[in-house]
């Protein structure tokens, strides 16, 4: 296909309007009065176009693709003087004439110069909030956690199809109180550790987007420790997954299917420990609380029912260890506590309008009989500023703790569009979260939600016992204590029937970007109770995050 030289010259001028050279007409057939004079003169002065040996320009003469490629090559040579929009226009031309540019020895997008180089984005986050040993209002106990997280995020483009992503991070206390992290047992304060490291490779049609710092986002396979977000809010899980995945479709628009297999690495280990490893030495605790002196004053039928409840537990004890959520969960001490799982999700996006999610997660290995969950989520932009969203998650496994197949849901709205790249941008919103015990296992996008939904007592001593069993999730401790404390059949029946654990609460959030690269955030959890109506304390959290490239 050929083009008139004057049209190419004008297109180049529009693409590179930053050129402002002023010079006399370099061509004998381009008069000062010609409508194209300024375009031709400026592009000639910049060395983008030249004429024929006889000194003419011949603006109406059709030129070949090869001659057009020469003009594009000269624009590429001036890439450093262009803004992002102009670079995008030039790269679009370069892609269209890539074969001719290769014959000229020009590398499209300067790939050879960029490949192998690593882009570094430093993330500095300072935050403060109450960290609870006991979040319930009547017996609350907490300390103020104030500290910083520093992350070094890297992107290395090995070739047009292959990209390596990495992240080193560290947590630093700023007030002497240790910073909480679900992986804290694997690293120390102020010590660098690996947050994520994975490589992706694109299959099928090659994707190139010179405007994006990321690698290809469609039709990719990946291996390593990579990020996974369930739903649109990430309350259920927003963490890492260690294993491999394959993705069909474009993650930025339209539909894409992702299948992953490996281990979820950002679960709340204190919360999931009894599920995975059981409660050790629980036979001794049962013997202690079964002392006849604690039964005095209770009717015979209450004593009988308590004995039956105790016998149920005793039958489930294996080598002194009790598994409260499912029998035959035999994850040994010292074994990797990351939950082995298979994960699948399908997401359809219409950028700026809506996105729909459907996903499923099944635990495998020793915890396979605890989690078989599926969910769906929707995010819809009513206007360019008002967003409505909702999520639903169901665990199809019937768990004995509350004798139910637990579920959770979230509904909420956000107003505004806070972007770290747009100074003065903002957003605020409100969500309501209703999460039954057994649908959340840690790794929430919100530290407040995590403290509500996965609350753990720091030092639990069972009712009528004298020996501490250490950290214990509220979903088990409260249920057990309520049954022990019951003095009448009515109280005992209520203790057995009343659901324990989980949380239902409101979460308000606000974000503001005062300058490019800095985002300020505040969130507030309130009107929180567990599933049995036990009130939790209100929690306020502040955070400032700076991004440096």
From TrEMBL:
Keywords: Signal
SLH domain span: 23-86
Entry keyword annotation includes Cytoplasm: no
Range of residues in the leader sequence: 1-23
Transmembrane segments: none
Domain of life of the native organism: Bacteria
Name of the protein described by the UniProt record: SLH domain-containing protein
Organism for this UniProt entry: Dialister micraerophilus UPII 345-E
């Amino acid at each position: 296909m050929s083009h008139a030289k004057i049209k190419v010259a004008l297109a180049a001028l529009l693409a590179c309007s930053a050129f402002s050279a002023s010079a006399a007409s370099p061509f004998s057939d381009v008069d000062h009065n010609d409508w194209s004079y300024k375009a031709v003169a400026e592009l000639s002065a910049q060395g983008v176009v030249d004429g024929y040996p006889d000194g003419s320009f011949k603006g109406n003469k059709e030129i070949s693709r090869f001659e057009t490629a020469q003009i594009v090559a000269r624009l590429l040579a001036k890439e450093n003087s262009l803004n992002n929009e102009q670079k995008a226009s030039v790269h679009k031309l370069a892609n269209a004439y890539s074969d001719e540019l290769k014959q000229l020895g020009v590398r499209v997008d300067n790939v050879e110069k960029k490949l192998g180089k690593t882009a570094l984005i430093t993330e500095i986050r300072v935050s403060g909030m109450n960290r609870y040993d006991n979040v319930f209002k009547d017996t609350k106990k907490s300390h103020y956690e104030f500290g910083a997280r520093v992350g070094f995020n890297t992107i290395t483009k090995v070739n047009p199809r292959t990209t390596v992503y990495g992240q080193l991070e560290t947590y630093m206390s700023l007030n002497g109180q240790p910073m909480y992290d679900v992986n804290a047992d694997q690293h120390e304060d102020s010590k660098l550790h690996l947050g994520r490291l994975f490589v992706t490779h694109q299959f099928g049609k090659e994707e190139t987007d010179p405007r994006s710092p990321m690698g290809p986002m469609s039709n990719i396979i990946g291996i390593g420790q990579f990020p996974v977000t369930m739903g649109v809010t990430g309350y259920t899980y927003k963490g890492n997954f260690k294993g491999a995945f394959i993705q069909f479709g474009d993650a930025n628009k339209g539909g894409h299917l992702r299948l992953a297999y490996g281990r979820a690495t950002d679960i709340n280990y204190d919360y999931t420990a009894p599920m995975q490893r059981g409660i050790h030495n629980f036979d001794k605790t049962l013997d202690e609380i079964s002392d006849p002196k604690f039964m005095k004053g209770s009717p015979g039928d209450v004593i009988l029912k308590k004995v039956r409840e105790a016998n149920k537990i005793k039958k489930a004890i294996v080598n002194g260890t009790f598994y409260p959520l499912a029998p035959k969960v035999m994850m040994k001490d010292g074994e990797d506590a990351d939950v082995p799982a298979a994960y699948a999700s399908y997401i359809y996006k219409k950028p700026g309008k809506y996105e729909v999610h459907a996903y499923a997660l099944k635990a495998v290995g020793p915890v396979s009989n605890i989690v078989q969950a599926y969910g769906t989520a929707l995010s819809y932009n009513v206007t360019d500023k008002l967003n409505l969203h909702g999520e639903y998650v169901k665990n199809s496994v019937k768990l004995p703790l509350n004798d139910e197949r637990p579920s959770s849901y979230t509904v909420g709205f956000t107003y505004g569009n806070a972007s770290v790249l747009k100074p003065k941008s903002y957003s605020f919103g409100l969500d309501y979260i209703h999460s039954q015990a057994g649908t959340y296992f840690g790794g929430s996008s919100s530290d407040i939600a995590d403290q509500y939904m996965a609350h753990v007592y720091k030092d639990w001593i069972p009712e009528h016992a004298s020996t501490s069993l250490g950290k214990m999730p509220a979903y088990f401790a409260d249920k057990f204590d309520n049954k022990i404390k019951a003095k009448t059949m009515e109280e005992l029946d209520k203790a057995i029937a009343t659901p324990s654990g989980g949380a239902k609460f409101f979460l308000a959030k606000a974000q503001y970007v005062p300058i490019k690269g800095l985002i300020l955030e505040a969130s507030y959890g309130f009107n929180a109770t567990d599933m049995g109506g036990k009130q939790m304390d209100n929690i306020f959290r502040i955070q400032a995050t700076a991004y440096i490239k």
